[in-house]
Structure formats: structure tokens, C-alpha cells
Amino acid sequence: MQSPFTAKVIEIIGAIPRGRVSTYGIIAAHAGSPQGARQVVRILHSSSGKYNLPWHRVVNRSGGISLRGNACAHQKALLAEEGVEFEDNGAIDLSRFLWWPKAW
């Protein structure tokens, strides 16, 4: 059985539209735990496949990809296919691509 927080995180991540991103911290705050960014990471790791979540649309607060190696390249490729553009420093311009959840 899922906790209410986990259920909200899954709902929020599932709602991120194509071509937009959100951050671990924003998702955590809107799900009711402002300090729960690491919990969002855990939920993504354990539930992305089960719930077919668009995991690639979740980035860190700087607009960067936190994954390393091949996983980073895969996430970047998926976002680029959706039209998300990366700055020269490898980060996403959050002023252009950030998505905020509606009030939950």
C-alpha cells in the first residue's frame, strides 16, 4: 500500500507534460513534504516502470540531470526528443521549460 505522499508524487510526475520538466524539490513540496526531494528520487527509482512515469522529466533544482554515464545521456536524449533544449553548461533553462504542478 502506498503512502499518501507516494501517491501524490506518482500523480504529479505523471502529469508533467511533454517538453517540460519539474524538479525533485518542487514535486516533493507539492506532494506535502518540502524536504522530501530524496524521497522523490526513491519513488522514481522504485516506481517509474510500474506506473510508466515520465522519469526523464524530473531534474535537479539547477536544471541539471543528476544521473551519470549512459543514464544521463539517455535522459538528455529523451528530453531533447521532446524539444527541451540544453544550455552550453548542460543545464536546462528552467525559466523556459519548468512546469509547476497545480495546487494538489
Count the E strands. 2
| The first-level CATH class name | Mainly Alpha
- Give me the CATH architecture, please: Orthogonal Bundle
**Main beta sheet strand tally, sense and closure:** 2 strands, parallel
Number of structural units classed as domains = 1
The share of residues in helices is: 40-55%
Structural class: mainly alpha
Order of helices and strands: HEHHEHH
Any idea what the radius of gyration is? 13 Å
Which ranges are low-confidence, i.e. pLDDT below 50, for 5 or more consecutive residues? none
What is the overall silhouette? Answer: globular
In terms of DSSP E residues, the strand content is under 5%
Annotation field: number of helices: 5
Distance between the termini: 20 Å
CATH superfamily: Winged helix-like DNA-binding domain superfamily/Winged helix DNA-binding domain
Provide the CATH topology. Arc Repressor Mutant, subunit A
Mean of residue pLDDT? 96
Write out the strand line-up for the largest beta sheet, numbering strands in chain order.
Answer: 1-2
Write the SSE topology.
Elements: H1 4-15, E1 22-23, H2 24-30, H3 37-51, E2 58-59, H4 69-81, H5 94-97
Parallel strand pairs: 1-2
Helix pairs in contact: 1-3, 2-3
Question: What does this molecule look like?
Answer:
Helices cover 49% and strands 4% of the residues. The protein has helices spanning 4-15, 24-30, 37-51, 69-81, 94-97, and strands spanning 22-23, 58-59. With 104 residues, it is mainly alpha-helical. It has a two-stranded parallel sheet.
